[in-house]
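Give me structure tokens for this 255-residue protein.
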Amino acid sequence: MLRLVNTLINKFFARARGRLPLRYARDFAPARCRFRSPGTLLILSSRNPGVSPLPRSTGRVEEPPASPCARNGRLSRAIPALKRCVTFRGLLILFAVFLPACGYTLQGSPGSRFGDPAIRVDLRPIANESLVPDGGAYLTARLRDQMRGKGFRGRFDRSQADYIVEGTVREIREEVFSLGEDKFALEHRMTIFVDIRVVEVTQGRLLWKEDGLTDAASYFAGPDFQYTESNRRMAFEEVCRRLARRIAETLKEIL
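Here you go.
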């Protein structure tokens, strides 16, 4: 199909430049098919199974398929490009399938115990000092999910814990972000402030401490109270997910 479209385009431009139109069947045949002129007509017999005659009115013989040929001074590149594309995709699939079978896996930093099944982490419920009743509990639950998603294979256990992770939701601040035409608040911005601390129990070392870890998200408000509260809750959950993801990524590096 690509060769036929290419041939029709070349014919159109040839007419536009005043050239003679392409007249023979070989001009519309695929690039792999060649026709010999009447002067080189072959005598066909059962000994030449690879050569098939055309009707006698044409006086030409069709040759077996050959390598891609030039057409109007240009080489048809559709099939070679397609072959290269297929080959490249095949290599990608090969690496994706066989590398894990050979034992190659994604791991954290060298010496990290984050993926060790024997590790025990005391992830204490994050304290809440904000006006949202479940602020600390929701952030704690999202942190557990993010740690599992990042490759944590240990146990969350307080007894004989190797590490302690604790924190506090200090504040959930909201401010008007934009006003509508009626001068009422149209968009609010919510910012959550969290303190986090990680301690190694065996040696009593403080591995990580950060006060005022923040993230923010915006939500729209309207005259309907339920609409505004629903958007507010969605913004709160989104910010908690972002904070939990950042904390989990740091834990993966330091444990």
